[in-house]
């Protein structure tokens, strides 16, 4: 059952706290653009932190439900929407969560403190919720981890060993993209197992589900994937995998702590 505890500010409060005016409204799409332009090496942002916080507050305050109990998406705290909006701008960076909290906290204090995002939020509770949410959030609002990994794979292909030969590269182009999707999906999911559904991946890669099954077997043979849970139709359990992010430098740099260790322990 979903528990709703809603705190809705007056429009004048929202305008004051978020920092928006009728003449200058910051678009939420700006935040996604800043995500795409974020530099993983230097942490550069297209938008200054003040505007990122303003957009995140707008996203948070516009949600119908400030606090959700157990739902289809899991347990969400009061700062779930706010944290997810902020993280959308930093998705390329693997810094500790404290770094991001230090960026955001002064901006929130300028606007009146964390209680403006939840009537019972004090400084300690805000920190704990922000940190907890940061670990759990895996993708931007309205997008799935798989679709995010697919876009990342197209922009940053990995180039598995089987595809290094020019002739094989053309022949196994689909396999190379599959490995890239699986690798970037593991980066998104951290040390958690990943799902590589044949139907959905087949649609993304424009191949048949049977071909995805063959890609998965080939990736296991090549040592990129290891199976941690086998498919069970009766129990409705899908096959779960872990990807060895250490096989590619770009994945190793972007991965969260514990990702590589999870694969080693599963083998």
Please sum up the structure shown.
The protein has 13 helices and five strands. With 267 residues, it is mainly alpha-helical.
List the helices and strands and how they pair.
Layout: H1 11-18, H2 28-37, H3 49-62, E1 68-71, E2 74-76, H4 80-87, H5 97-110, H6 123-136, H7 145-155, H8 166-171, H9 173-189, E3 194-195, H10 198-205, H11 209-221, E4 225-229, E5 240-243, H12 249-254, H13 259-266
Antiparallel strand pairs: 1-2, 3-5, 4-5
Helix pairs in contact: 3-4, 4-6, 7-9, 10-11
Key features?
mainly alpha, disordered N terminus, 5 strands, three-stranded antiparallel β-sheet, 267 residues, single chain, Arc Repressor Mutant, subunit A, two-stranded antiparallel sheet
What does this structure look like?
- The strands form two sheets. The protein has a three-stranded antiparallel β-sheet with strand order 3-5-4, sandwiched between helices. Strands 1-2 form a two-stranded antiparallel ribbon.
- α3 (about 50-60) packs antiparallel against α4 (about 80-85) and α10 crosses α11 (about 210-220).
- The protein is mainly alpha-helical.
- The chain is elongated.
- The protein has helices at about 10-20, 30-35, 50-60, 80-85, 95-110, 125-135, 145-155, 165-170, 175-190, 200-205, 210-220, 250-255, 260-265; strands at about 70, 75, 195, 225-230, 240-245.
């Amino acid at each position: 059952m979903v528990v709703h505890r809603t705190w809705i500010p007056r429009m004048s409060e929202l305008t004051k706290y978020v920092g928006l005016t009728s003449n200058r409204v910051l678009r939420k799409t700006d935040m996604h653009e800043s995500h795409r332009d974020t530099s993983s090496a230097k942490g550069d942002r297209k938008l200054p932190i003040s505007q990122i916080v303003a957009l995140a507050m707008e996203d948070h305050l516009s949600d119908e439900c400030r606090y959700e109990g157990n739902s289809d998406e899991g347990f969400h705290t009061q700062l779930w929407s706010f944290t997810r909006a902020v993280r959308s701008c930093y998705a390329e960076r693997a810094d500790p969560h404290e770094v991001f909290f230090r960026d955001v906290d002064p901006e929130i204090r300028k606007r009146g403190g964390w209680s403006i995002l939840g009537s019972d939020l004090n400084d300690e509770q805000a920190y704990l919720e922000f940190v907890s949410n940061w670990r759990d959030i895996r993708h931007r609002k309205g997008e799935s981890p798989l679709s995010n990994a697919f876009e990342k794979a197209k922009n940053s292909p990995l180039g598995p060993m089987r595809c290094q030969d020019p002739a094989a590269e053309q022949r196994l182009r689909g396999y190379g993209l599959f490995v890239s999707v699986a690798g970037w999906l593991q980066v998104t999911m951290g040390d958690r197992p990943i799902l590589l559904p044949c139907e959905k991946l087949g649609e993304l890669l424009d191949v048949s589900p049977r071909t995805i099954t063959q890609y998965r077997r080939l990736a296991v043979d090549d040592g990129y994937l290891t199976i941690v849970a086998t498919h069970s139709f009766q129990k409705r359990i899908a096959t779960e995998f872990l990807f060895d992010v250490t096989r590619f430098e770009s994945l190793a740099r972007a991965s969260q702590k514990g990702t590589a260790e999870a694969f080693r322990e599963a083998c």
